[in-house]
Amino acid sequence: MSETKEFSIRLKVLDGETGTTRICGPEEAETWDWKNPEIWRVVNGWQVTSYEQLVRLLYEKAMRGIEEVEMLEAPRFTMLSGG
Q1: Given pLDDT bands bounded at 50, 70 and 90, which one contains residue 3?
Q2: Does the predicted TM-score (pTM) go above 0.85?
Q3: CA atoms of 28 and 64, how far apart (whole Å)
Q4: Please, what is the end-to-end C-alpha distance for the chain in angstroms?
Q5: Is 81 helix (H, G, I), strand (E, B) or coil?
Q6: From CA 22, how far away is CA 16, in angstroms rounded?
Q7: Which element (helix H / strand E) includes 10?
Q8: Residues 26/11, Cβ–Cβ less than 8 Å
């Protein structure tokens, strides 16, 4: 018999333009426009370029007992210019 375990993890998104933060779940992140190259999303110094990549990252963090992951979201030009 296999056991399925539910994971709960929060995604804390910092808006690089306004400095505001919001908490969302992975289901909200699925609705984001991941094909837009002008918006960059970064977690721990790594650019996240797809919803699938984000889900894998969140799963790995949840497996280690981490309950919240911070993500910086900003237009590409601000990330390249140093904010």
Answers
A1: very low
A2: no
A3: 22
A4: 51
A5: coil
A6: 12
A7: strand 10-15
A8: yes
